[in-house]
Amino acid sequence: MKILILNGPNLNLLGIREKSVYGNRSFEDYFDELKEAFPALELSYFQSNTEGTLIDKLHEVGFGDYKGIVFNAGAYTHTSVALSDAIKAIDTPVIEVHISNVYAREAFRHKSMIAPHCKGSIAGFGLESYRLALQYFERQKPKRIGFNA
User: Fold this and answer.
1) 3-state secondary structure the chain
2) Which of 14, 40, 51, 62 is least surrounded by CB atoms within 10 angstroms?
3) CATH number of the structural domain 2-86+117-137
4) Residue 78 is assigned to a ligand binding site
């Protein structure tokens, strides 16, 4: 089962930026750990600081072989109607994730523009938020056509 992990702006700075909020590990190091922990999933990873590039990636994987997208849109979560529309338009289910507990932070972070079009949202568990989303996808059974004998 193919799953994309998609990270938005400033998440390329994990391990460097605001360690008290985001921790001291790079996402690339954590991604290696996720690949080992989920051998049944074919994981890919993409990060961009550019809204249009994130939309293009959603369009690219949203209608084909991918069975899920784990998306941390970063600050675009709270501002991007365009990302919200892109998620709404695609077939592939999206789970919104956040490293920090956005509800314990500034008030503007309490509103997600993308959540209404996502399968669910996970926030506040550090990098483990990604693992929780992957566990959901891992447990999904492929739909079968026909009858069981």
Assistant:
1) CEEEEEECCCHHHCCCCCHHHHCCCCHHHHHHHHHHHCCCCEEEEEECCCHHHHHHHHHHHCCCCEEEEEEECHHHHHCCHHHHHHHHHCCCCEEEEECCCHHHCCHHHHCCCCHHHCCEEEECCCCHHHHHHHHHHHCCCCCCCCCCC
2) 40
3) 3.40.50.9100
4) yes
Q: Is 98 a catalytic residue?
A: yes
Q: Where are the domains of the chain?
A: 2-86+117-137
Please, which residues have CB within 8 angstroms of residue 62's CB and are 6 or more apart in sequence? 69, 86, 89, 90, 91, 92
pLDDT of residue 149: 45
Given the residues 45, 66, 98, 117, the one annotated as active site: 98
Catalytic residue among 22, 30, 45, 130: 22
Does residue 110 have an active-site annotation? no
pLDDT attached to residue 100: 82
72 annotated as belonging to a binding site for a ligand: yes
87 touches 118 (CB < 8 A): yes
